[in-house]
Task: structure prediction
Amino acid sequence: MFESFLVPEKTVVTAKGDSAAVDVSAAAGKTLLLSLTVTRIIEQESLDLSVWGSADGQEFGAKPLVAFPQKFYMGEHPLLLDLSKTPEVRFLRAHWEVGRWGRGSETPMFEFQLSAREVPPDILKEAQAEAQTRA
Result:
């Protein structure tokens, strides 16, 4: 069962950037639960976080595999990433952009982490069946 951090715990950022490439070949073709946890912020700022895939850990292509909706507040934000649609992906990395407006310092500051955990197929099937029942 694959589990790893794409962005380590208590990472503080003040400018746009990228995480290191993480080898996810053990989860190739599977579904991952991405958990973005924002643990500290200052007022009037935004965080845009996307996850990019690569076959070789060097070239990450022209567009992300998934992107979280823009964040302004602390909290935990889950997002599913289905790697079965991109079987060539063996590495993931996170990319973030930060913005700040209003009074005070113009430098944004976010403390966050991003974890990835394989979703067991039986749990995924149960969730899909439940969603179809509600529809």
